[in-house]
Amino acid sequence: MNKDNQNDVVTGASQTIDVNSGSSLMEPDKNKSKETVQVKSEWPGPKGMIPVTSGKADDANVHNRVFLDNILVEMRVIDAVEPDLTTTILGRKYSSPLMPAAVSHLNKVLSDKTRKPMQEKAIAARNMDLLNWIGMETNEEYGEIVAQGGDTIRIIKPFADHNKILDEIKFAEEKGAVAVGIDIDHIAGKNGKYDVVDGIPLGPITMEDLKHYAESTNLPFIAKGVLSVSDALKARQAGCKAIVVSHHHGRVPFGIPPLSILPEIKKALAGSGMEIYADGSLMGGYDAYKALALGADAVLIGRGILSELLKSGTRATEDKLKKMNEELAEMMMYTGVKDTNSFDASVLHYE
Ligand SMILES: Cc1cc2nc3c(=O)[nH]c(=O)nc-3n(C[C@H](O)[C@H](O)[C@H](O)COP(=O)(O)O)c2cc1C
Questions:
Q1: Ligand 1, residues 248, 259, 324: which to mutate, most atoms within 8 A of Cβ?
Q2: Ligand 1 neighbourhood includes 169 CB (under 6 angstroms)
Q3: Do the Cβ atoms of 53 and 306 come closer than 8 Å?
Q4: CB of 168 closer than 6 A to ligand 1?
Q5: Is the CB–ligand 1 distance for residue 302 below 6 Å?
Q6: Homologous superfamily, domain 87-336
Q7: Mean pLDDT per 10-residue segment, the chain (351 residues)
Q8: Are 130 and 164 in contact (CB under 8 A)?
Q9: Cα separation of 134 and 316, whole Å?
Q10: The whole model's pTM is what?
Q11: Domain spans, the chain
Q12: The ligand 1 atom nearest the CA atom of 224
């Protein structure tokens, strides 16, 4: 197995993480505790810019990893065929259900200022015909990134200033976004007050606010950072067309793994016509498979490509995503899943 034994740029102290599959290199010892799953993440950028994951018990990423690694699959190979990965997301066809996640600020973190990882990621997505997501960026930066990319979903912060949100929604519309949304999970700061990002105050999101934003645009509106049936139902009531089941790489201490609540949320939203995406420590194609089998319509890949993106740019990012597609297809073939509409959670077994 190919082990990464250094401080990986983003996934961090991955001494125990397989760089290809993302899986923890756990001994086949059921008594092993969660402490053996090291997902401590050292963020290379300016301190405080991105939440750093500690690898301790309150780090929700640890629990993601344990949850993912304890899902095993049965084989259904008779009649299995090479799978078709094409996926329809919000009415548009893409080459795969993998979507480069809503990340932000990456153009500020490298010492080589000639490189623009946000654009490099957008180009990789465009080249691979994947739906790219973009997080917190100013309108100007967002415009520069999408000018080089393809289809995009813009995720806006829950700013205290509602006019700023409406202005960014409008700008995304003008730039041809496929959808817009808010990362509703970025409300709280570490001090128990509404967070402040880049000096900009964030604020609460009420049902009425969400409804107002969803109604303000003709684009599909997305609530990113849903981790309960309660919020999923509120998002539906507010008119959201999709949600991302996520805890934003562990913003909430002791957050449950998104995939552990995904089936319940899926059930609660059945018949609503809403699409459900998921993210959280999906470091390889096998992880993505598990999310899709558990009911995600598509998945966001953040830290799974960040290391390649920051170290080497577009080409390396494409190579990583291709590898993930291959792993996904391999698992689909082994489990008799012919296309991305045919996932079946009954192949999954829990250790
Ligand atoms: C560097 C970085 C910046 C991020 N910025 C944003 C953001 O601005 N908006 C947002 O909704 N999510 C943001 N996220 C969260 C990701 O979209 C995603 O939810 C999270 O990383 C979980 O996926 P992962 O485990 O595959 O990384 C960011 C993640 C990273 C790593």
A1: 248
A2: no
A3: no
A4: no
A5: yes
A6: Aldolase class I (3.20.20.70)
A7: 35 37 42 47 47 78 94 98 98 98 93 94 98 98 98 98 98 98 96 95 96 98 98 98 96 96 98 98 97 98 92 96 98 98 98 85
A8: no
A9: 19
A10: 0.90
A11: 87-336
A12: 11
